[in-house]
Automatic annotation (TrEMBL):
Signal peptide positions (record): none
Recorded superkingdom: Bacteria
Protein name: Gfo/Idh/MocA family protein
Naturally occurring in which organism (per UniProt): Salibacterium lacus
One Pfam match: GFO_IDH_MocA
Every Gfo/Idh/MocA-like oxidoreductase N-terminal domain range: 6-126
InterPro entries, per the entry: Gfo/Idh/MocA-like_OxRdtase_N, Gfo/Idh/MocA_Oxidoreductase, NAD(P)-bd_dom_sf
Length: 396
C-alpha cells in the first residue's frame, strides 16, 4: 500500500487477536496508533505491543484526547458497538466494526446518518462479504448469469459447550445491565455470517443486501441462557425469494455451513467438508469459485484501501447489514421467549460440558433437505412463532 493508514484497535482480546495477528504477520504494527482495552494483558499479542511501544488506553475518549487515527477497528462486545462507532466517527475516524453492527434498528439509522454527515465509511465485519469469491458470485448474480433467484437455504450445526457461554458476561444475554440491547445468539454471533450472506448475495448492488419482507421463526434453548441456541426460520425477500435458515449449538455433530441457493439457470452450493463454493448450471456446466473461508482477513485490507482512496462506502456497510438486523429483530418479535427443549430429550456430557438435544442433528438436517421448519415435521415439542411483516426501510 502506498501510504500508511493509522489504526486504533478497540478491543484486543477475543476476536481482536485476529486483527493483531494479521498486522503482526504483515509487519504493520507501526500503523497501530494505539489500542483501547480495559484488560490488554489478555491479548495474545500484548508483549509485542509493549515492545513496539504502542500506547494503551482504557477508553476511546482517552485515546482521542492525545491521538488521531484514520480508522478505528472495533472488536468489543456487541452492546458497545453503537457508542464506540459513534465516538470514532465524531473524532474523524473511519470504522471497521465487527458484526453485528448494532442490535438496534434505531441505532443503525443513527450510524448511517452520522457517517454520511462525517463523510466517512463504516464497514461491518461480515467476513464473506469482503471476499473476492463472494464478490465474484455477486457480480454473476447481478449480471444475470444465473437467471432469477428461486429460493435459498442454509444449515449450520456448530456444537458449543458451557465454556462458550462462560467466556463473557454478555454471552447469550438479551440486554446489558443498563438495558442496552445485546441479543447475543446463535444467529447474531457465530453463524450470523451465513444468514447475512443470503441477503447480501441478492443485493441490488455490491454495497447492498436484499430487503427482507417477512419472517417466521422457531427458537429453542438447551443451555441456561436468556436468548436461544437453536433457530429455525423461513422468510421471504421483498422480491419474493423464499429463504430458510437452520442453526444450532445444542447438537453433537459439527456440520456446516451447508448452503444451497437455487436460481433459474444454476444452483449454488457450499458444503463444509468440500470447502468449495460452486455453481452447477442446468446445461451441466460447473463453475468452482473457491472457499471464502480462506479470505476472512480481506475486510481489513479492503478498509485500509478504502481509507487510502478516500472512499466513503465499503462493500459491506450499515446499509448492507440492515437485512440481517431486521431478521434478528423479527426473530425476537416472532418468538419473544425461546422455548426450552423438553427435559426427556435434553442431555449433558460432563466430559465436554456440552448440553445437547437427542436427535436434533437429524431433525434439522431433514428440515434442511425438505425446506421445512421443525414444527412442520410434527415433533410434539415444537412451536412456531408469529409471522412478522417487516416494513420497507428508506435506508436499505
Amino acid at each position: 500500500m502506498e501510504q500508511s493508514v493509522s489504526i486504533v484497535l478497540v478491543g484486543i482480546g477475543g476476536y481482536g487477536n485476529n486483527y493483531l495477528k494479521v498486522l503482526w504477520e504483515e509487519s504493520m504494527f507501526n500503523r497501530i496508533q494505539g489500542v483501547v482495552d480495559i484488560a490488554p494483558e489478555n491479548s495474545d499479542y500484548y508483549e509485542q505491543l509493549k515492545e513496539a511501544d504502542v500506547p494503551v488506553f482504557s477508553s476511546m475518549e482517552a485515546f482521542y484526547e492525545k491521538y488521531e487515527a484514520d480508522m478505528a477497528v472495533i472488536s468489543t462486545p456487541i452492546h458497545f458497538h453503537t457508542a464506540q462507532t459513534i465516538c470514532a466517527l465524531e473524532n474523524g475516524s473511519h470504522v471497521l466494526c465487527e458484526k453485528p453492527m448494532t442490535p438496534s434498528l434505531e441505532d443503525a439509522e443513527k450510524i448511517i446518518r452520522l457517517k454520511q454527515e462525517k463523510n466517512a465509511f463504516v464497514a461491518v465485519g461480515f467476513d464473506w462479504s469482503f471476499s473476492r469469491i463472494i464478490q465474484q458470485v455477486k457480480q454473476d448474480v447481478l449480471s444475470g448469469r444465473f437467471g432469477e433467484a428461486r429460493r435459498m437455504k442454509t444449515l449450520a450445526l456448530w456444537p458449543r459447550t458451557e465454556a462458550y457461554y462462560e467466556r463473557a458476561s454478555w454471552a447469550g444475554k438479551k440486554y446489558a445491565a443498563d438495558r442496552t440491547p445485546i441479543f447475543d445468539s446463535v444467529v447474531n454471533n457465530a453463524t450470523s455470517h451465513f444468514l447475512h450472506n443470503m441477503f447480501y448475495i441478492l443485493g441490488s448492488r455490491a454495497e447492498r443486501s436484499a430487503p427482507l419482507k417477512e419472517l417466521t421463526a422457531e427458537l429453542y434453548r438447551a443451555n441456561d441462557i436468556e436468548t436461544f441456541d437453536t433457530c429455525a426460520l423461513k422468510g421471504e425477500t421483498e422480491d419474493g425469494v423464499p429463504v430458510h435458515f437452520l442453526a444450532s449449538h445444542a447438537v453433537t455433530e459439527e456440520i456446516g455451513p451447508v448452503i444451497r441457493y437455487e436460481f433459474e439457470h444454476a444452483v449454488l452450493t457450499y458444503v463444509h467438508h468440500e470447502q468449495e463454493l460452486k455453481a452447477e448450471f442446468t446445461d451441466g456446466t460447473v463453475v468452482t469459485y473457491g472457499n471464502p473461508e480462506n479470505e476472512r482477513s480481506f475486510k481489513l485490507y479492503h478498509c485500509m484501501e478504502a481509507v487510502q482512496e478516500q472512499r466513503t462506502e465499503t462493500l459491506c456497510g450499515p446499509e448492507a447489514a440492515l437485512s440481517h438486523l431486521h431478521a434478528i429483530n423479527a426473530l425476537h418479535e416472532s418468538v419473544p421467549e425461546a422455548q426450552c427443549f423438553p427435559e426427556e430429550i435434553t442431555k449433558y456430557d460432563p466430559d465436554t460440558r456440552l448440553h445437547y438435544v437427542e436427535g436434533l442433528d437429524e431433525l434439522l438436517k431433514q428440515c434442511y433437505e425438505d425446506w421445512q421448519l421443525p414444527s412442520e415435521k410434527g415433533a410434539t415439542w415444537t412451536k412456531q412463532g408469529r409471522t412478522i411483516s417487516i416494513p420497507a426501510s428508506s435506508l436499505s
